[in-house]
Each structure stands twice: as C-alpha cells, then as structure tokens.
C-alpha cells in the first residue's frame, strides 16, 4: 500500500519467514505463561565516565480493559545504578510494523553495538558486539520494547494477534506496556521520552497523543529517527499524488552525487540537495501540476533538468512522463554496470544479472545488516543478559500477516495530526528528528514537507529540532554519523530538560 506496510515486503525473504513463523508457533497458546526476567550487572565508559548499570531482560504481561492477560511483551531495560528516581527514562522501539527493537538497541542507543566497518558496510563473519561509547546511558535510562509479533513477544491468555496488529491496536498495547512499567518501577516522576525509528516514529506520535489524552502522561521529548508520519507522501499515483516525486527528488540527487552520476556539477552533497530542493518546489512542482496541459517545450526542459539532477537519461524520464518512481531509480541509476542500489541506504549496491527481470527486490542495505545484527543480538541475549528461549526471535516481519488500518484511515493516514494535538496539549514537549540524506524509505524532504504542513502555531515550531546525516535510514551504522547523532542527542536532552 505505502512505505510503512510495503516495508515488510522489501527487506529480505519475508514470505519464507512468515511461513516458518506459522509452523514454529503452531499450537503454542501461551509461550510465556508467567513473567520471566533476568537481571545482570554491568559497567561502561561513556565520555570519560564509568557508568554502572543494571540490565533487565524479560517479559511483561499486557492486559485488556477487563484486566485479562492478552499477551507478553519482551523488553530489555538498562538503568543506571544508584541514580535518583527522577533520572530521565526513554522507551525505544523500531518500525516495520513488525520489527524488533534490535536496530536502535544494538546500533546506537544501547550499551553494546554491532561492529560494522567505518562506513557502515558489512564486516566479515563472525560478527561481534563492542562497548558502545556513544550510548545514551549517560543521559537516560532506556527500555527497549519488542511489540507483539516481534522478538520474543507473543499473544497469550485471552489474546490473539488481532489484538495487536493494527495501527491503533499497536499504539494502545505499547502504551499499556509503558504505563505498567512506569507503575511497577516507580518512574512516574521521571522525565519521560519516546524514541522510535521508521514506523516507530508514527507509533511515537500516536503514543504521545493516546497517553496524554487518555492516561494523563506528558512526555518531555520524542525522538524520531528516520521519520514517517504521513504514509501517503510516498504514493506514486500518477495524476493524483504529485508529492512523492517532488519530495523524493532531493534524495535521488544526493544518491546520484554519491555515485558520481552528476558530472561534477556540485562541490558537495549539500549544494546538490539545495539545487534539487529549489527545482522541486518551483519548476518541477509547477510542471507536474499542469499534467497533460504542460507544453512540449517545457516538458523537454524539465526532463533535461531532471536528468542533470538524477543521473538518469532524458529519454527514460520522458518515457515515464517526468515521474520517476523509486523502483525505476534504484534499478536504473547503475544498471549499465549491472548494479542495483539500496532503498534503506542508497550508498549500498548489489550485483544483478538483469535487475529489472529479477523476482522481487533484494535491498543491499538491508542484506548488509540483517546477518550481523541477528547473530550478534542472539549471542548477546544468551551470554551476557542470560535470557534464553527456544522461541524464534523475530527480527523483522516474521509474525505480521495483516495490519488493521481502519482507524488510521480516519486520520487520512497522517499521524502528524495526532502529534500536533499532543504538542498543543503539552507545549513543553520537544521533538527531535534525525534524517539521512541517502534514505529512500523515509526521505528527508518528505519529512520536512510533513512538518511544515502540520499547522503548528509559531510558538511551537521552535520545539522541533531537525538534524541530518550523510548516510541512510539507519544513519548510525556509519561511525561518523553515530558520533554526530550522539552529539546531537546530547544537545536535545539539554534542550528538552532546560539544562
């Protein structure tokens, strides 16, 4: 349907994974009849300070309105030892829907991270986890959450997957976990944060609205990594939606610059992006608005400029009526070299004999992280956190077979409406937005467009902090951006707590 729900289809062999999941869990009614926790003690050095912390890996029941158990959510919580009760606490998760929290957990925020090469490309196996000197543990306690159907989280008791697998079902169930964690661990008085990546950003906006509106919980800040709040902005529906080709163009240009397809027109990726933005919001937008009424001479000029900004041929652009969808771009930019580029991170490439004739799409940027993150996480959970289970730990998509969007449809598939409501209700809440230049899954210009059309009063626009990185969807896989992200996050915590 769109980027959020399509994401499960483009990241590896998920159909096979789903079939395996069905077979694996067949007949299992309640894999965790009791709550299970494993507590271990650790320390890590961050910014010159040795921090002692407790790690709790476990499952927490989820209840319905009748206080009947409907599921178990697996989580890993890191809390600083001997800290004051009002220390900030951050609840973190990833996207999909159908992704475990492994990426934020083992990529950037947690005390351990998967070791990639400096540019974020896959190292040779066996893979390893190292102490993460750029963890957020010096700023906040962190609870990583795996929504039901991901990781080790499953329905149980009176619950079924239908209780969890929908936009608002997901928001309410994760909110219930957060409420229960705050209560059980005496953290109601702590400064509270939400951190989500990809679909997790949509989840964060919904949780901030739902918990503020219905549970009286106000958050100090929301951290949006590779944001997608409006799931219609990437729809390439010729004649109906012209936003997608406009808002994706700067990402195409950044990608073409990286792959040296712009004939040396620009001195930097920032200069290339600036020109793409200018053209997208002016000549290109006006041309697409005219549709078939666009004069042929103007069409030729627009196609020539698009060719200069994308590295694609003018003939191909004219053949596609000036609208370059993502599939065309990833397959065509380096097709003459037999290469397809990545969607999550367009710096990555993979070889194809003939990319346009291959069944499905193998995203090289996902293939590069899937193995290292899976192997490293499983070893870490078993050996250091002492949490063992015979269940399959679903990294991405394994148990998500359908997703209910009926309630979301009433908001026109745009969760920024709920984020605006949450910000109006809680005007002290700050929002951090991290964008990767080479992210075609959640393009940065689409995010800018969404935030500039939220209708926020001027008094609240300053609550939003936008940052940018020279990598993709998971910008933290590149070491320089991992470091920059931590520096930016440190500033955000100061910004949101008035330190």
UniProtKB/TrEMBL annotation:
It comes from the Bacteria. InterPro entries: AB_hydrolase_fold (IPR029058), Peptidase_S10 (IPR001563). Keywords: Carboxypeptidase, Glycoprotein, Hydrolase, Protease, Signal. GO terms for molecular function: serine-type carboxypeptidase activity. The keyword Hydrolase applies. One of its GO terms (biological process) is proteolysis. Residues 1-23 form the signal peptide. It comes from Pleionea litopenaei. It holds the Pfam family Peptidase_S10. This is Carboxypeptidase C (Cathepsin A).
């Amino acid at each position: 349907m769109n980027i959020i729900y399509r994401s499960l289809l483009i990241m590896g062999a998920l159909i096979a994974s789903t079939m395996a999941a069905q077979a694996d869990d067949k007949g299992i009614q309640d894999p965790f009849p009791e709550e299970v926790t494993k507590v271990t003690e650790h320390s890590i050095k961050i910014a010159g300070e040795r921090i002692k912390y407790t790690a709790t890996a476990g499952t927490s029941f989820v209840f319905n309105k009748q206080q009947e158990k409907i599921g178990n959510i697996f989580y890993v919580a890191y809390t600083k030892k001997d800290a004051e009760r009002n220390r900030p606490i951050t609840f973190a998760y990833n996207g999909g829907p159908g992704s475990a929290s492994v990426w934020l957990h083992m990529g950037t925020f947690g005390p351990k991270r998967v070791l990639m090469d400096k540019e974020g490309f896959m190292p040779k196996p066996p893979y390893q986890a190292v102490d993460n000197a750029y963890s957020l543990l010096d700023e906040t306690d962190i609870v990583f959450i795996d929504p039901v159907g991901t990781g080790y989280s499953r329905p149980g008791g009176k619950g079924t997957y239908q209780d969890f697998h929908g936009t608002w079902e997901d928001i309410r169930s994760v909110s219930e976990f957060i409420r229960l964690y705050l209560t059980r661990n005496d953290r109601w008085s702590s400064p509270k944060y939400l951190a989500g990546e990809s679909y997790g950003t949509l989840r964060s906006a919904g949780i901030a609205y739902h918990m503020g509106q219905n549970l009286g919980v106000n958050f100090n800040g929301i951290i949006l990594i590779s944001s997608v709040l409006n799931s219609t902005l990437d729809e390439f529906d010729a004649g109906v939606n012209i936003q997608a080709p406009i808002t994706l163009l700067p990402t195409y240009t950044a990608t073409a610059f990286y792959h040296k397809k712009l004939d040396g027109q620009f001195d930097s990726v920032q200069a290339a992006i600036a020109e793409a933005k200018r053209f997208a919001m002016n000549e290109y937008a006006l041309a697409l608005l005219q549709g078939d009424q666009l004069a042929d001479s103007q069409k030729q000029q627009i196609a020539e400029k698009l060719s200069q900004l994308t590295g694609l041929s003018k003939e191909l652009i004219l053949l596609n009526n000036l609208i370059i969808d993502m599939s065309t771009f990833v397959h065509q930019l380096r097709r003459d070299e037999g290469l397809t580029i990545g969607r999550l991170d367009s710096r990555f490439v993979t070889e194809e004999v003939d990319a346009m004739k291959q069944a499905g799409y193998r995203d090289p940027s996902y293939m590069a992280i899937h193995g290292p993150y899976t192997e490293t996480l499983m070893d870490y959970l078993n050996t250091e956190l002492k949490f063992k289970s015979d269940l399959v730990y679903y990294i991405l998509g394994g148990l998500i077979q359908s997703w209910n969007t009926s309630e979301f449809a009433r908001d026109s598939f745009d969760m920024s409406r709920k984020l605006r409501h949450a910000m109006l209700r809680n005007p002290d809440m700050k929002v951090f937005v991290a964008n990767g230049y080479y992210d075609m899954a959640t393009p940065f210009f689409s995010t800018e467009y969404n935030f500039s059309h939220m209708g926020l009063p001027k008094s609240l626009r300053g609550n939003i902090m936008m940052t940018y990185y020279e990598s993709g969807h998971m910008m933290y896989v590149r070491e320089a951006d991992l470091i920059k992200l931590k520096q930016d996050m440190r500033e955000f915590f100061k910004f949101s707590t008035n330190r």
